[in-house]
Amino acid sequence: MHTIFSGLAHLKLSAAGVIEECCFDRITPLRKNAGWIFRLGLLDSQGEWKLVESGEFTKIEPEGEAFRFSRHPELGPLEVVISIRGGGDGLFRFRPRVSGSAAGLKLVWIDFPPVTVPGDWRIFWPHNEGVEVRRPELHQVYGIPGWPNASCFGYYPGACQMQFMAAYNSGGNGIYFAAHDCSASPKSLDFYPQPDGSTRLSIQCFCGTEDEEYHPDFDCVLASLNGGWIGAAECYRAWMERTLHLPKLDPDHDDSPLADSPVTVIYPVKGEGLDVGPMKPNEYFPYRNALLVVRRWAKAFESRIIALLMHWEGTAPWAPPYVWPPYGGEALLTEFRDRLHREGHLLGVYCSGTAWTQQSCIETYSREQECTEAELEQHMIRGPKGELDAAICCGPDLQRLGYDMCLTEEWSRRIVKEEIRKLAAAGIDYAQFFDQNRGGSSHNCYAAHHRHPPVPGLWMTEAMRSLLAECRNTIREIGSTMFLGAEGAAAEPYIASLPFNDLRFNWECVSGVPVPAYAFVYHEYINNFQGNQCGLDWQLDFINSPDNLRWRTAYSFCAGDLLSIVLGRNGALHWGWNIPWDETVPEAEQQNAATLIFNLNAMRKRYPEFLRYGRMLRPGFKVSSPQMAMPFKSDTIEVDIVLSSFWRSRDEREVLILANSSTLPQPVSCCDGKSMCELVVPALSATVVPVSKGFLAFPQFTNKSKLTYPEKKSILSVQ
């Protein structure tokens, strides 16, 4: 048995390097870990997987703070060294080195170390901006992460925008597990229910490199945790700020059109709310037809509007990479753009990312002949067996048939930049070009004839990072200020290039309870928007819980995100994207939701020092609100009716923000364990309560908090 110390913590390992016990502050959260310290994923010449565990090596030698594994009966001279270091800070650091050939096999990933926690612990997963999983036994990982490219695993940098996980008991005490990797190399962060009822957390690092060895310059770290997901986000943010030095939003020099909190109004110009099926022009085409609706919502919200168009492409809806010219021709869109701009509004468009469309499943559009004649398949992503496939929205019952473009190929990069140039030259203000590249992700490619190693690795992050920089240069070269975005928040290495993104927090209603971990870590650097809220039909029972629309809006507001609405028929506020227009929101609920948005956006404009530039904090007191049952697909969850978040401005002022999504005033109590304060938050509104020197000065502000209420406004009379 080997024991490694870090501060007051200790880690016990068997002679085979297996974690037997991990003890923090005399509490032992980890026992009876997996029977291995690492697992390798390798591919043979036929593209078949071979999984290898550390215990299969016949020679295991401790070497100081490391273990050397060699003499595998099938892998020839392959050697693996796992360094395990303690320190004075309570962190345990794990780092691998893999060397030697593996008998004709290609090393794809290494999974280390396994961290197994009790099955009744909650799991924080950094998927779609963050989710607290309360029933991990329901989680499934389909296949072996690495292929196919679909977003069914926790890919970073992508649908997982951050590199940390956590597991904790109902009191918020447990473990923090992260990769502290400045290079942002690709990983799969996921968790696996075990047959004995426990849950294993996993960080799989993709190893593709030009070197003969895989020897990363970062550690996977394990530490104690208190405070649940917020405590984990604090740990990760502290590391991020020490090492990455991202540029913060600057309140003194903020010339972004997002600075005054425009509301995003999302609608299609073809079809009636679905991504498939008939795509006839609807009431918002020609484009100018939407002007009256834009004006109505601008007046209702007393706000600038970003008119964000769907199904506008002149090619076919969701048929990447080509989008230009717009449906109906440039003149119609130019007229709409100019009239929007004259009234102070912005024009945005959805695109479909870096896939390649062979054939649309919606319309007659096809690029099959071009692909064959120009031999374009050579530029497409390949799977381990040479497969051609696409990651998202590809299939006979979906939007298209086609492939994904490999972003190391010059042809692919040129096409992306040419399409973005067309959008910028047309005076469009915002292009969510990288929709379906979730988080700005590139996709795994195994092609041996491309300009990268034949397995996924750091080259993918570098290719996307450099492509995004080239796209920004392309926009600037023609004098445009157009900004770009992706589906889901921009992953960590892409924040500077993707400053405005369509969030996907609502997707996590199928996994657990969404939590604003992304905003906690990055809000000072980037503000995203509430997004089109697609997929409600498989996320929650929205028809039988009509207040879910208001709850989702209050959630986004408390996370510091800009607000958005999706339109249905006749300019009406709709549930979200990809819900048929026939499933209308009741008129009274539309009015309630619109009133809530007006009040919340007024508050956001009034307090930009917190809600645009502020830093989210862990409050030093407990906030208690009445609750309501929300029928998530993962479970029926009791959620707070009044949502809250705690913020600090650049000049060190602090506030508690409370957003009441209910149509009735709601009581809220705050308690620091010694004293309690109660206040009432008005219906469909928010309250900003100053806090001085922590909770102790909080009560003196409660009588003044009415001064911070926005004027409650009904939009019933707004036409």
**In which order are the strands of the major sheet placed?**
7-8-9-10-20-17-16-13-14-28
Q: Approximately what portion of the residues adopt beta-strand conformation?
A: 25-35%
Number of helices: 11
Cα(first) to Cα(last) distance is: 75 Å
Low-pLDDT parts are 699-712, 714-719
For the residues shown, what is the average pLDDT?
A: 93
Q: CATH topology of the domain at 2-243, anyone?
A: Beta-galactosidase, Chain A, domain 5
- For the record, the CATH architecture of the domain at 2-243 stands as Distorted Sandwich
CATH class of the domain at 2-243: Mainly Beta
Biggest sheet character: 10 strands, antiparallel
Give me the oligomer status: single chain
Radius of gyration: 26 Å
Shape: globular
- The share of residues in helices is 10-25%
Features:
single chain, 719 residues, alpha+beta, Beta-galactosidase, Chain A, domain 5, ten-stranded antiparallel β-sheet, seven-stranded antiparallel β-sheet, 11 helices, 39 strands, disordered C terminus
Task: Report what the structure shows.
The chain is α+β, with helices and mostly antiparallel strands and 719 residues long. It has a domain at 2-243: Beta-galactosidase, Chain A, domain 5 (Distorted Sandwich). The protein has eleven helices and 39 strands. The strands form eight sheets. A ten-stranded antiparallel β-sheet has the order 7-8-9-10-20-17-16-13-14-28, with helices on one face. Strands 5, 6, 11, 12, 15, 18 and 19 form a seven-stranded antiparallel β-sheet that branches. Helix 5 runs parallel beside helix 6 (458-477). Mean pLDDT is 93; it is low at 699-712 and 714-719.
